[in-house]
């Protein structure tokens, strides 16, 4: 009897301990997500700020031509009459025509010929292209033709002798190496390269009245005035520029212009006789 009672109690205890009532067990709650830490206001502003805009280059006029400048160079006051040159050498060739000084040529209404008009502060990176054909200056009738030759830096100049007599080329320069060379009648062309912007004076040691200028420019924005003093320069990007005017007898002066795309600024300097 006692044995049966003991066995019954053991079975009851086992049933209570292993009954596995899953409903009575506490269910583990999922861990609440920690709220994200808010970014400081300064960080938000930095994130929202757009990247700095790159500077925009000035746009040329439609067709890529840019703007330009035109005008006329005139003389203040009456011009002196051109002096007659004393032709006293190789007269059979040199005296076929009367020789007058070309150092100051002024039209009836005051226009100055052979004045060089150029930008003194050209656009950054502007560079004159070297022409495929060499610019030339000729010795014809014992005078230089043309009297003023404009060339880009780096160009090779053909100095021609069409007279069939002895000439002697002598240049005066500081930035380009000067040269002094005889050019007999059989030597039709002497070639010289000019690399630096400069106003180069050219004479002939055989014929002292002969004189000319080779003007070397490092950019393409320059012009030589015509017989009436007129000039025109195209393709200049919009902007403010300082313009120089140089003449072998009247010296140099400067002025300022504002170039607008698709338009031509006006520049009309008046030079004084020294």
Question: Which keywords apply here?
Answer:
Immunoglobulin-like, five-stranded mixed sheet, 274 residues, globular, mainly beta
Per CATH, which architecture of the domain at 71-88 and 100-123 and 221-274?
Sandwich
Mean pLDDT: 83
Low-confidence stretches: 5-64
CATH topology of the domain at 71-88 and 100-123 and 221-274: Immunoglobulin-like
**SSE ordering:** HHEEHEEEEEEEEEEEEEEEE
N- to C-terminal distance = 153 Å
Question: What radius of gyration results from the CA coordinates?
Answer: 44 Å
- For the record, the CATH class of the domain at 71-88 and 100-123 and 221-274 is Mainly Beta
Shape: globular
Secondary structure: number of strands: 18
What is the count of DSSP helices, taking H or I runs of 4+ residues? 3
The main pleated sheet reads as: 5 strands, mixed
User: What portion of the residues fall into strands of 2 or more residues?
Assistant: 35-45%
Structural class: mainly beta
Q: Which range best describes the helical content: under 10%, 10-25%, 25-40%, 40-55%, 55-70% or over 70%? A: 10-25%
Spatial sequence of strands, sheet with the most strands: 6-12-11-8-9
Please explain how this structure is put together:
The structure is a single chain. The protein is mainly beta and 274 residues long. Among the domains are: 71-88 and 100-123 and 221-274, Immunoglobulin-like; 127-218, Immunoglobulin-like. Helix content is 10%, strand content 35%. The strands form five sheets. A five-stranded mixed β-sheet has the order 6-12-11-8-9, with no helix packed on it. Strand 8 and strand 9 (180-183) form a beta hairpin. Mean pLDDT is 83; it is low at 5-64.
């Amino acid at each position: 009897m006692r044995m049966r009672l003991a066995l019954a109690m053991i079975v009851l205890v086992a049933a209570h301990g292993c009954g596995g009532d899953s409903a009575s067990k506490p269910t583990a709650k999922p861990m609440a997500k920690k709220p994200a830490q808010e970014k400081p206001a300064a960080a938000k502003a930095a994130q929202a700020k757009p990247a700095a805009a790159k500077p925009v280059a000035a746009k040329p006029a439609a067709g890529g031509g840019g703007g330009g400048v035109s005008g006329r160079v005139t003389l203040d006051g009456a011009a002196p009459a051109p002096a007659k040159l004393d032709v006293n050498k190789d007269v059979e060739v040199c005296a076929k025509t009367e020789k007058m000084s070309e150092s100051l040529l002024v039209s009836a209404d005051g226009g100055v010929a052979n004045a060089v008009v150029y930008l003194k502060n050209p656009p950054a990176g502007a560079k004159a292209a070297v022409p495929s054909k060499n610019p030339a200056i000729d010795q014809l009738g014992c005078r230089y033709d043309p009297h003023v030759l404009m060339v880009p830096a780096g160009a090779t100049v053909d100095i021609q002798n069409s007279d069939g007599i002895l000439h002697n080329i002598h240049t005066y320069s500081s930035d380009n190496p000067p040269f002094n060379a005889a050019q007999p009648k059989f030597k039709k062309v002497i070639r010289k390269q000019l690399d630096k912007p400069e106003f180069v004076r050219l004479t002939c040691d055989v014929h002292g009245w002969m004189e000319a200028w080779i003007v070397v420019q490092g950019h393409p924005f320059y012009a030589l005035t015509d017989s009436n003093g007129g000039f025109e320069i195209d393709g200049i990007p919009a902007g403010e520029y300082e313009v120089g005017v140089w003449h072998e007898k009247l010296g140099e002066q400067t002025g300022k212009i504002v170039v607008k795309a698709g338009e031509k600024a006006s520049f009309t300097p008046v030079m004084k006789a020294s």
